Amino acid sequence: MLTVSQDTVTIEELHAHLNGSISSATMQRLIAQKPHLHIQHSMTAINRGQRRTLDECFQVFEVIHQLTDRVEDIFTVTTDVIKEFASDGVKYLELRSTPREEKSTGLTKRKYVETVLEAIKHCKQEGVDVEVRFLVAIDRRHGTEVAMETVKMAEDFSVSSDGVVVGLDLSGDPTVGHGKDLIPSLQRARNSGLKLALHLAEVPSQQEETQLLLSLPPDRIGHGTFLHPEVGGSQELVDTVMKKRIPLELCMTSNIKGQTVSSYDKHHFLYWNNLGHPCVLCTDDKGVFATELSQEYQLAATTFNLSTAEVWALSEQAIDCSFAPESVKQDLRRRWAQLKREIHS
Ligand SMILES: CNc1ncnc2c1ncn2[C@@H]1O[C@H](COP(=O)(O)O)[C@@H](O)[C@H]1O
Ligand SMILES: [Zn+2]
């Protein structure tokens, strides 16, 4: 059996929500700091063998948000999450998070993003071996106005952050709201040079919305679970995605534990990978779903019987799909080749 060991192929993580990525060690510390909330660790993670409905997953995020409502919490979780990805072998990380305002602690949306950026800088100064970029997230539940406000903020930060803010994420409960209300904001973001990573077709029966959002088009698709005809999508959607060659960010454990995919062997990785379409393995929420990027590669390798060469090819392809500038991609390709030589020598 292929062993995907640490610091080998898990070089790029492109789909990680900050508050979903908090490890159990950090979570225990946050819980201990806020005993009055009466939160237990079992309320913030879905462990081995457990499953929840997607709706229940979104309730988990509400619990976690209570634990991260101060500037210092955002700094701590960002720093810890970056270091944890680095120790799993990740050399390039695109984190995403929804700016939050908390009146009781004085946290503002702007301060939220500034704090994430400070933590990224802090890790760099400490010499943590990972390049980090940030996507500002739009929560689809919050509607049109907040979406536009978020885009404007992302535009400001993309200018002031020295290239760290590279784009926007669209996420949140996929059953709430409609993509059409968000088109003007997303269109504006695209026009101002921000990259778009959109959660698309995460749940069934969203063909109309999916077609509309694909017309932007996005630069990457999160999940895309229900795009293809075998699961109620359509050939037309598949053709659009393939023609525009929009990479898919695939998060196997997340989809199984959130019950949008019934078993690992039925994961849509198989469909898209067989078509030769770019697929990037990601964690989504490594804290909530109790996983690691190396574990996701291992899972794909064992479930789909991938050869060592195929796994290496997947991680190499992920480099092309990132929103990093060409110079960073070149550097990552060099490191990838070097790691490969070291492992196989
Ligand atoms: C499981 N599949 C998913 N589908 C859609 N959105 C998701 C998600 N997992 C996480 N999020 C989004 O990320 C937020 C938590 O991180 P941040 O507070 O932004 O750092 C959630 O509230 C949700 O909006
Ligand atoms: Zn996600």
Automatic annotation (TrEMBL):
InterPro entries in the cross-refs: A_deaminase_dom, Ado/ade_deaminase, Metal_Hydrolase
Entry keywords, A to Z: Hydrolase, Metal-binding, Nucleotide metabolism, Zinc
SUPFAM superfamilies documented for this protein: Metallo-dependent hydrolases
Cofactors: Zn(2+)
Cited Pfam families: A_deaminase
UniProt domain Adenosine deaminase: residue ranges: 13-334
Catalytically driven reaction(s): N(6)-methyl-AMP + H2O + H(+) = IMP + methylamine
UniProt record similarity statement: Belongs to the metallo-dependent hydrolases superfamily. Adenosine and AMP deaminases family.
Protein name in the entry: Adenosine deaminase-like protein isoform X2
Organism ancestry: Eukaryota, Metazoa, Chordata, Craniata, Vertebrata
